[in-house]
């Protein structure tokens, strides 16, 4: 897949992986970008750090308001006349034990990470079908392939994304629509600081595993490579990627390994 001359829509673009993607894509490819997140001011800052700002549009979007995605999609399409790639990157993580986690936190994770993402994708799907091309790139997590303590709601939402987008890929291969699931391991962003605790408040602290993860620049380079190759799934991280294969072939061994690692 050639990213030049494409219109690429990125959610969660105000920080972290989304911000890194926007800046890198603007520098290396002759493409147009639509940047979305809840924070318009932060998106404008990201836009100012990108090259060719005339090719970059800002559309504020709240994944929690999943009943209004048709409006956002129409605005995105009208901005540059089309959308070629949707990068579903927006979302929130969690750090709390199941017993300490309010059901409202479980609900919020599902609404933002799962329902918001699929609502946006479903709203854009008719456009992809009409033009008989399109690419959904959804950032899930290695936690969408196996689980870990303190992340029950997050794991549930990310597992659900795999189920939905695998089905979408099968149903719309005939429409020349591609689906790539990007599964990050630990990446040095603010994902842990912004993670919700059991009562719904932010954790506001970094953890060592996240701090020692891949840099955003390294991750983004690998992610773009996977998108261009139109991979079904890409596992991007360090030794934690082995968990995918342990889960498949030696699930009890993975269970013991994760418990002993005491990852928070």
The class by helix and strand makeup works out as alpha/beta
What gross morphology would you assign? globular
Name of the CATH first level: Alpha Beta
DSSP summary: helix tally: 9
How many β strands by DSSP?
A: 7
Helix content: 40-55%
N to C succession of SSEs: EHEHEHEHEHEHHEHH
Taking pLDDT < 50 over at least 5 consecutive residues as the criterion, the unreliable ranges are none
* CATH architecture tag: 3-Layer(aba) Sandwich
Distance between the terminal alpha carbons, to the nearest Å? 37 Å
Q: On the 0-100 scale, what is the average pLDDT? A: 95
What proportion of the residues form beta strands (DSSP E)? 5-15%
**Spatial ordering of strands, largest sheet:** 3-2-1-4-5-6-7
CATH topology group: Rossmann fold
**CATH homologous superfamily caption:** NAD(P)-binding Rossmann-like Domain
User: Which sheet architecture does the biggest sheet show?
Assistant: 7 strands, parallel
What is the number of domains? 1
The gyration radius over C-alpha positions equals: 18 Å
Overview of the structural elements:
- By secondary structure, this protein is of the alpha/beta class.
- The chain has one domain: 3-Layer(aba) Sandwich (Rossmann fold), CATH 3.40.50.
- It contains nine helices and seven strands.
- A seven-stranded parallel sheet has the order 3-2-1-4-5-6-7, sandwiched between helices.
- Strand 4 (85-88), helix 4 and strand 5 (134-139) form a beta-alpha-beta unit.
- It is globular.
- The N and C termini lie far apart (37 Å).
- It comes from Mangrovimonas yunxiaonensis.
- Belongs to the short-chain dehydrogenases/reductases (SDR) family.
- This is Short-chain dehydrogenase.
